[in-house]
Amino acid sequence: MIKEVARLLVSAKFAIAFTGAGISAESGIPTFRGKNGLWNRYRPEELATPEAFKRNPKLVWEFYKWRIKKILEARPNPAHMALAELEKLGIIKAVITQNVDDLHREAGTENLIELHGNIFRVRCTKCDFKEYVKGKRLLEEILEEDLPKCPNCGSLLRPDVVWFGEPLPEKELNEAFRLAEKSDVIIVIGTSGLVYPAAYVPYIVKESGGTVVEVNIENSAITPIADFFLKGKAGEVLPKIAQEIRRLSK
Ligand code: OAD
Ligand code: ZN
């Protein structure tokens, strides 16, 4: 089936990828659901909602500092690298991700739409201050305080990620839907497909007459509309697709 999918991608006019936490699992970042999922160990309503942040910003920041540290140790895996390569080859036009871990960017993906924000960005809860900070500086300057404050107005800073009950960033969501409408192939990787509105993306491709390819270690909510289901780890399946595409384009 890898060969068929590789041929499909090579002949596609406009192929995109849609990714979730599963693509970063092999980089050592825990997923949200399923075995060892974050939401089995922690209650999202206590850590990832605007109400939780109002109630106990220190606890929410502790959770994000822990995740930031974990993500800072992670490197892109062969699945992220394969997607970046497919973009360079002109085969994948964009990657739409639900992940906040920055690993697609680190792998070299250029046209990246982050639907749920980025964990390395902070923003002010009052004014429009927003900053992308990564690595040591983030840990030393922003996170050394219990509660990081805005350099402009002194109000509380928060992670620039989407919490439960919050709308998605409008520009990114519109762009994702626009791309989905014009795509003839979408490759859906490592997502449970349970969180909306992000999960509309593959449905829009399907309804616009496109082909849905899914890569996952198990069935997901997207599987019923998948034309091709490649069962396996993203870090193993994606490099195989890229290798086959290199072979075809020789
Ligand atoms: P989930 O944790 O819901 O789902 C992860 C998916 O990845 C599951 O379908 C797994 O079977 C699959 N998976 C795990 N390891 C894999 C591997 N090595 N290769 C391929 N697939 C693998 O994560 P998401 O679907 O991304 O929202 O969750 C969606 C949203 O829910 C997240 O963006 C987050 C969360 O609450 C926000 O933070 C707003
Ligand atoms: Zn401010």
What does this protein structure show overall?
With 250 residues, the protein is α/β, with parallel strands linked by helices. The chain folds into two domains: 1-28 and 76-116 and 169-250, TPP-binding domain (Rossmann fold, 3-Layer(aba) Sandwich), CATH 3.40.50; 30-73 and 118-161, 2-Layer Sandwich (SIR2/SIRT2 'Small Domain'). It has eleven helices and nine strands. The longest helix is centred in the first third of the chain and has 16 residues, at 57-72. The protein is elongated, with a radius of gyration of 18 Å. Bound molecules: 2'-O-acetyl adenosine-5-diphosphoribose (OAD) and zinc ion (ZN). The site of 2'-O-acetyl adenosine-5-diphosphoribose has 25 residues, from β8.
What keyword list fits this structure?
250 residues; Rossmann fold; SIR2/SIRT2 'Small Domain'; 11 helices; elongated; binds 2'-O-acetyl adenosine-5-diphosphoribose; binds zinc ion
Q: What is the CA-CA span between the terminal residues?
A: 20 Å
Ligand list: 2'-O-acetyl adenosine-5-diphosphoribose, zinc ion
Give me the CATH fold name of the largest domain.
Answer: Rossmann fold
Kindly report the name of the CATH homologous superfamily of the largest domain. Answer: TPP-binding domain
Q: What structural class do the secondary elements suggest?
A: alpha/beta
Cα shape: elongated
What percent of residues are in strands? 15-25%
> Strands across the major sheet, in which order?
3-2-1-7-8-9
Profile the largest sheet.
6 strands, parallel
| Text of the CATH class of the largest domain | Alpha Beta
Radius of gyration: 18 Å
Provide a count of the helices.
Answer: 11
